[in-house]
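Risk register update: the risk of archive-format incompatibility is retired. Evidence:
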Amino acid sequence: MNAPAASGARPWVWIPTLYFGQGLPYVVVMTLSVILYKNLGVSNAEIALYTSWLYLPWVVKPLWSPIVDLLGTKRAWVVVLQFFVGAALALVALTLPVDRFFQLSLAVFWLMAFASATHDIAADGFYLLALAEKDQAAFVGVRSAFYRAAMIAGQGGLVFVAGQLTELTGDVRFAWQVVFGVMAAFFVLLFAWHRTVLPRPAADGPVPATGFAAGFVETFASFFAKKDILLVLAFLLTFRLGEAQGLKLITPFLLDPRPAGGLALTTSQVGLVYGTFGVLALTVGGILGGLAISRHGLRRWLWPMVLAVHVPNLAFVWLAHAQPGEPALVAAVIALEQFGYGFGFAAYLMYMISVADGPHKTAHYAICTGFMALGMMLPGMASGWIQEGLGYPDFFLWVCACTLPSIAVTAFLRIDPAFGRRDGHAG
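Archived output:
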């Protein structure tokens, strides 16, 4: 069904800022926390284990996603949670100078993760309600692009600033306090902006149900009654199996000294090489992926996109063996890998949208992303120990081997030839 037109601002006014605001707290929790703790001397095994637990809110968010459907509007959820994220970012800055900074900052990251996961539910539901179906595929690349732009700002620009401030002041804790303080102020401004400009879709309201408990049960029952649900879950859980492990160790790999198997980049260089050039390439890939699907449909592009995600993981195998000393060469190799991932990930997003289609699309999309997060959390928890046991070269080979289950599952997927095409026709 087509969503009714939303009153208010045009999509270009709010989609970029909405998905930038969705991406930034996620990259803070999942990536900046890794670099922060690496800078402060925490081991790879501890970083991988404890920061992987931060995925849990995204794993279990389907348990409370019906609440977002059944209470209030998605618009209200979005703006309130952005203010809460700003407060959490300020609290992280306050915990860094204290003795038990690791435990206290992790606790605040947990609160931020729960707020961010709930914001994801509301923002994705709002997107589905505020755009007509024919526009959703066209804008999936835009939303992905600005989500990735948040990654550039977070793991690129802010990491670079943290590195530069550390070199200028000699105080890594102070440098990261400044970074988190700036982000906190930004989210207060984002709260004020979206409170003003977000449209008010006619359909944005509580989903009718015979009762709260009945609506809650109905939401989950209708999801697990979907056709080929076991195949759907297999795809959602395996698509990021390799990435889940590699992602936790990429920044430690870039920062570790050469005798430990790393590339010995500085924090500022990581911000430029991985967080800026890499994410720019990923963003361009995401935009082109969304446009390709809107032109020809998801089914035609599924296999090329799945391979585009998985095959470039071999780039990290080469980096680990060759250990090139030129940051420009490292940046070029990572940009190639990230472009492939961005291009292919558009297929995963559209597949989740296709699975979520129906009267409970907000909650069902949240359930899909919950399984996606589970597929990231569990493998990531053990990745630090695997890397320490195998070393970086064999670890990245292991990551490549872990992409094979996803490739096997893809062969059994059944997708409507017309799904994702902007004109709605197969071809």
